[in-house]
Amino acid sequence: MRTTLTIDDDLMAQIEDLQRKKGLSFKGAVNFLLRAGIQLQAQPPKPKPHRTKPRKLGLRSGIDPTKLNQLIDDLEADEFLSAGNQ
Questions:
Q1: Where are the domains of the chain?
Q2: Is 3 left (phi over 0), alpha (psi -120 to 50) or beta?
Q3: Could you tell me the pTM of the whole model?
Q4: Apex CA 84: angle with CA 80 and CA 85, to 5°?
């Protein structure tokens, strides 16, 4: 198919560079670049994996880790008592 294109100067320089490097005609270089561009557009970009940087948080000051089980027991008892009063 024949058509007329207006090509920007910077793109023309790149096409001419590709012609020299690959030994292509102008038509061959344009078709090569069009195929490559269309193929890239057809493939969705691969998402970058999400990375989380771990860091030590520790417990807040004033919290005794040895009494956490007691706290859970107290909370469960409060929940049980409040459910029984309804």
A1: 9-42
A2: beta
A3: 0.50
A4: 120
